[in-house]
Amino acid sequence: MSLPRRYLRSPTAWISAVMLASLVVLALAAPLLWGTAAGRPDPSAVLRGPSAAHPFGTDDLGRDVLARVLTATRPSLLLALAATLLGATGGVLLGAATAVVGRRARRLLTALVNLLLAFPALLIALFLAVVFGAGAGGAVLALAVAGVPGFARLAQTLAAAVAGTDHLAAARVLGLRRHRLLWRHVLPNIAEPLLLATTTAAGTALVALSGLSFLGLGVQPPAYDWGQLLNQGLDRIYADPLPALAPGLAILYAALTFQLLGEVLAGRVARRGPVDRTPAPPPAPSGPAEEGLVLQVEDLSVELPTPDGTIRPVHGVSLALRPGEIVGLVGESGSGKSLTALAIADLLPERARITRRTLRLLGADLATLPPRQRHRHLATGLAMVFQNPASALNPSLRISTQLTEAVRAHRTASRAQATAQAVGALRRVGLPPALLRSRPHQLSGGQRQRVMIASGLMLRPGLIIADEPTTALDVTVQRQITRLLADLRQETATAVLFISHDIALVGEFCERVLVMYAGTIVEALPADRLATGARHPYTRALVASVPDLAADRDRPLPTVDGAPPDPLAPAPGCPFEPRCPRRLGHCAEQAPPMDDLDAVQRVACWNPVPAEVAAS
């Protein structure tokens, strides 16, 4: 289905499209159809009430009010759009220029924008309308100047994000002039939100312009717009309300049209991308459950829509964890480790599509549970420890609040009971109870990570997924965190899925290791075989790239040659084939299956390293 058809399937989109089309038709056709009746006085029909000949009555010269309201559509819309475009142009240029000018000029422009924002826009418009003189031109200029500060602040905020990008820095190095930097590198990257803001501002400008005309500062006779017609009908509103009601309804209708149009365009931009709207079939029950497993995943795949097409960063992943077991998941950055964890925890973006043959947590089939029950089961049975605890913890809340809110929501515990459990959780991770009154910024990196682990322990989960929990920590704190996780799983029988790219740490800390490459698991083996018993060439390359104290400092560190495959153009064969020193002819034609080498080791490779070679 094409993008316009998907766009118009929304009821709001249909309504806004019909309303906008009606305004355009009226603006074009009304002067031709009703222009004569709107401008022809009739002394015999002065100030008449509604009738069949004049549905909304006549004015003080006998002119038809309905014809004048319809004919005023064109000048009202054109003047509002002119004021909006002038204000948007000036504001955008003023705000976006802060990204390309020097430091002193940037400060001056920022101070100017702040100064202009200190005054209400409507007050500025009224003042300038008096200064410029009553009339359509003065009203348009007054509204344009009043709208500049708002657009300038929006453009300045958006341009600040572009100012720190590498491509703008590279353009500066090339010596491009400031106007080229502005037109080629800044404005194209902030055009969409500015367009949406302009669409919404058109409705506001229409109301403001009608207000100025109503006060006698806008359009002057013999010309007229909706605001002037509203003023003329207000004198007789108690006797004949329709002459005042008609232009008021026209102003409301046009302003609402622009507001709905802006909302629809914003939703369209947010949903951009080749999103598959085909209704997904109802989830089939998972495969047979295996007894004694905390987590059982079989054939898990993840699809993500992108502007260039749909990619499958995770495909065919199978893993299982038993109570008290620590399993490491390793691989290069971008291999799909974190996406696998997020898919298990149901934390992927809404546009992501997950398929699986089996997905069970603590014996429950997650795919067939109702959404509310599934969320509760995940919240109480699984805990996530993210890589950056500084962003995972809310900086505005105390540690006590963040530790107790989950147990109070899911275990219906009182405040005192939840606080007592939080004290116990902090002591279990080696932190004093006094930290409950602290906020995240008052803690060190290691303390924040311990708080994250304590937060997960509050609900006594059966599984902890630790996604790079030690990456940002020094070696001493890394040891403390891994020792803490090892002690916790012995005390509580909690299984741990430990995701990391640190091969040495995983080999020392975990019991089993799953090696992931290009979104799939290529080898599963005991941790004590990782250094000398790995059979997949990729696993051996990862192990060989780990430096040790005995390495020759005069030689460069070994690395894995080549680069991971492009997810937008997956090859039909083994994904590691272009980088593999043991590739065969058919490796590029067919992906190898995961085969058992023995009772505890599996590998997906057509030509694995022989056992005697691996041991040597």
What structural keywords apply?
transmembrane; ATP-binding; 8-stranded mixed sheet; 2 domains; single chain; 13 strands; Rossmann fold; MetI-like fold
Strand order of the largest sheet: 7-8-9-3-10-11-13-12
Main sheet overview: 8 strands, mixed
Quickly give the structural class: alpha/beta
Total strands: the figure is 13
Question: Could you outline the blueprint of secondary structure elements for this entry?
Answer:
Layout: H1 3-7, H2 11-39, H3 65-71, H4 73-96, H5 103-117, H6 121-132, H7 136-163, H8 166-173, H9 178-214, H10 226-234, H11 242-270, E1 295-306, E2 309-321, E3 326-330, H12 337-344, E4 353-355, E5 358-361, E6 364-365, H13 371-381, E7 382-385, H14 389-392, H15 399-410, H16 415-428, H17 445-457, E8 463-467, H18 475-492, E9 495-499, H19 503-509, E10 512-517, E11 520-526, H20 537-544, E12 595-596, E13 602-603, H21 611-615
Parallel strand pairs: 3-9, 3-10, 7-8, 8-9
Antiparallel strand pairs: 1-2, 1-4, 1-5, 5-6, 10-11, 11-13, 12-13
Helix pairs in contact: 2-3, 2-4, 2-11, 4-7, 4-9, 5-7, 6-7, 7-9, 9-10, 9-11, 10-11, 15-16, 16-17, 17-18
Transmembrane segments: 12-34, 77-100, 112-145, 151-174, 194-217, 244-262
Protein name: Dipeptide/oligopeptide/nickel ABC transporter permease/ATP-binding protein
Keywords: ATP-binding, Cell inner membrane, Cell membrane, Membrane, Nucleotide-binding, Translocase, Transmembrane, Transmembrane helix, Transport
